[in-house]
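Let us practice reading a record.
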Amino acid sequence: MKICELFTSIQGESSYAGLPCIFIRMTGCNLRCSYCDTTYAYHEGRELSEDEIIGEVRRSGINLVEITGGEPLLQKEVYHLIKRLLDEGYKVLVETNGSINTKEIDRRAVVILDVKTPGSEMSDEMDLSNLYNLKSIDEVKFVVTSRVDYEWSKEIIYRYNLIDKCHILLSPASGILLPEDLAKWMIEDRLNVKMNLQLHRYIYGPDKRGV
């Protein structure tokens, strides 16, 4: 597998924010979101075998593993890697951009499904059938750039009854939408979802890699 970076840090997003985590960032992405903050993952990386990756995870001494990208599901070997990590007792989070069907991911893994809003310029690429694959442990994330994105996200949440299915995360797009604006809309609408801030940016700064 081609791996962009493999590092330990504090989990910055999702319901697991604040926990020590080891990240496996895989190379390659089929989308080009307008606000992407990991463009280096499009091409950078090195080839590592599954055994080498597992060895790095074991040496980390951390039980929480996130497989992300780029888009990790582009590399078909990832499915066996996920299964093996789960078999060894790790808690595995799989963050995917929502354009590839998730049904082949081991059901024990936590899927963090990033549903692209219109402001990403990639919303037409979504495989919304993934919203029928969700388990109660899974999470759906919307990165919101504007009020239009917010209203669009609400419509998807209600249309697919997501609040009763899984955890919902709304993230203000960094440098584009003020968190206080998103908070205001959520409070006004009594929207029972979680605001998702990028904790790692507050800890390490917005531009540092490998965190």
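A brief commentary: The domain at 2-204 is CATH 3.20.20.70 (TIM Barrel).
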